[in-house]
Amino acid sequence: MASTLPTPSALQGVRVIEMGQLIAGPFAGKTLGEFGADVVKIEPPGSGDPLRNWRLLQEGTSVWWQVQSRNKRSIALDLRSTEGQDIARKLIAEADVLIENFRPGTLEGWGMGYDVLSALNPGLVMLRISGYGQTGPYRDLPGFGAIGEAMGGLRHLTGEPGQVPVRCGISIGDTLAALHGTIGVLTALYHRKVNGGKGQVIDVALNEAVFNVMESLVPEYSAFGAVREPAGSALPGIAPSNAYRCSDGFVLIAGNGDSIFKRLMQTIGRDDLGADAALADNAGRVARVEELDRAIEAWTLARSVAEVLEVLGAARVPAGKVYTAKDICEDPHYRARDMLLQQRTRAGHDIEVPGVVPKLMGTPGTVRSSAPGLGDDTDSVLDELGFSADDIAALRGRKVVA
To answer: Which of 82, 229, 335, 389 is 20 to 30 A away from residue 201, measured at CA?
Structure first.
């Protein structure tokens, strides 16, 4: 784990109980934990969070888990048992924030609806992430991030025209929901501070989180009846901005600013296009985007990615290569910005993991502890609640905790 000098934490003193699993809820907990919140993660005994076993495993544990659950404490607690629910309520009664991403109605079935929990803890801020939200005709349908991406309008735009829609390669719907949820938590905590200490529920739907970033999708349909369609690597309505083939790969070039466009055309030896009055603004360039893309790619095809980037960088034209994981790990800028950290797992392995975003200059985020093993902190969390060693042993014997 990266060593850092002690710094004040923006969320020091904030206690978060995380009941979620997999991606959306836990990513919100991860973000709060990186800025100092004490995040206690409740996991089912035996199996734990399924993310522990997703993708590539190192000695039986996902390396993804090492990022998603750093700065958290794990208590293995059977929430389906009456005793486990009682313990959860005790934990929540002393917390500032509760995160859950179960299907709507699950917590109510366990006797932990917000009406019950807020009576125990009036200041509780409760983040609820679900497929379609806590209300509406679809509330009870199962929803994953991929479905939210489809309903939110994103999947229709990904891929090449006329081809099968493709995913962007990561669970972006879950992450967008988590980020919206984190914003909601911070906003609610601020409101609680300045308005009498009362908490509230934050209701985040996966499809709505995706829909919120869909830019002009709906206004264009409302005003013009225009249904935006997939456009591959291009940026529809903005030109020129695309991925272009080089002799050894691809480079992205964004030459869509008026002055940038002129510099780009001069650089590629097409002053005729740069001086064309019809191409002086974006509307004119969009009308002739195919012609511009052909001209740019004719120039890039004769050069390597490195040469294109060097020449365009000198001309102050935004351009970039398409990075792989290897490229990221070898890039000096990532390291200079502390975006690659050494983190030691509980099993003693040193791995590189992403740094903390965003960067706060006064109260920066930190990695204070590695991701826990299942139930690593059960005893200490219960001890904080006043349970004796004999009490904990009895609970363990009844398989309420592990």
So the answer is: 82
